[in-house]
């Protein structure tokens, strides 16, 4: 299969535009025209993972963490990053990273953690600001359906689990074509009046250019009248972290036990502040920046990783922080990505790495 086909599916699922500014998600090594016999999914693309791809005759590695975050100046193999890149290129192995863009969708990294904790109805903990726009466009009545279909196909009109959402108002449009124009309706120098509709759609930030382009193609006029309005609506589908309620409140100790078993890890935690655990906030990976959001939703516990000593004090009697380890908190992301690709391409070989890439050992 062509690598590009898998990338297209991954990017519909977790649009790269949703990645954080420091991130480097996307195709890091290779070309989307390359062919591959299968895909190998890992959390980190280390040299041992590239070796595994060579051994298993797979030319495409999809990893959660990008192997390259910032610019490389030399390729002489002195660092593990250079060695990974050199080996991958030498063996025609493409490397793709799906990182904070998969953290920032409701159905991503944190959804997997929530389902393992038994939370069935979770929400985004920190909805992305400026993520939702309104697209208003004016179109002759007869072109309304074609234009709406084009906007829907380009990713507009999605509100949570509802698709093809729009609003129509009828009215009259006026315009006077001047010298040099080529109007579809009306004559040069004469004011024209046309029965038009105003169509309105909610569009996520990352789909704005695709929607505008599609609308222009479907619009009959030489000049399309339209507006983009930045809404203050909360982006329920996009943002960092997740929170939700356990089906039944359980004691803090029972919750600790459940987490320990599920994540097979050693937990660092602060004292419980409520007798039972009901509301759970989570963030796979380094999530300390979300503590305020976890407090705001009145979470009993905040499960994440990469907490430093002084940061634990910030729990400050509001909730209990549980640090389960970075690798451990994200280990199920491998399965999440693999299951997605398998579902999209059922006849395609999807492998998950057998290499444990966690650099941290416990004694
Ligand atoms: Zn991570």
What's the SSE blueprint?
Blueprint: H1 3-13, E1 26-29, E2 38-44, H2 47-55, E3 60-65, H3 80-90, E4 94-97, H4 100-103, H5 109-117, E5 123-127, E6 132-140, H6 144-153, E7 167-175, E8 192-204, H7 208-218, E9 225-230, E10 239-251, H8 252-263, E11 268-269, E12 276-286, H9 291-296, E13 301-305, H10 309-312, E14 320-323, H11 326-330, H12 333-344, E15 349-352
Parallel strand pairs: 2-3, 2-15, 3-4, 12-13, 13-14
Antiparallel strand pairs: 1-4, 5-10, 6-8, 6-9, 7-8, 10-12, 11-14
Helix pairs in contact: 6-7
Zinc ion binds at residues 65, 285, 326, 330.
Textual characterization of the structure:
By secondary structure, the chain is an alpha/beta fold. The chain has three domains: 3-101 and 332-352, Udp-n-acetylmuramoylalanyl-d-glutamate--2,6- Diaminopimelate Ligase, Chain: A, domain 1; 109-127 and 239-324, NIF3 (NGG1p interacting factor 3)-like (Udp-n-acetylmuramoylalanyl-d-glutamate--2,6- Diaminopimelate Ligase, Chain: A, domain 1), CATH 3.40.1390.30; 132-230, Alpha-Beta Plaits (2-Layer Sandwich), CATH 3.30.70. 29% of the residues lie in helices and 28% in strands. The strands form three sheets. It has a six-stranded mixed sheet with strand order 5-10-12-13-14-11. A five-stranded mixed sheet has the order 1-4-3-2-15, with helices on both faces. It has a four-stranded antiparallel sheet with strand order 7-8-6-9, covered by helices on one side. The protein is globular and about 85 Å long. It starts with a helix and ends in an 11-residue tail after the last strand. The relative contact order is 0.16. The model has no long low-confidence stretch (mean pLDDT 96).
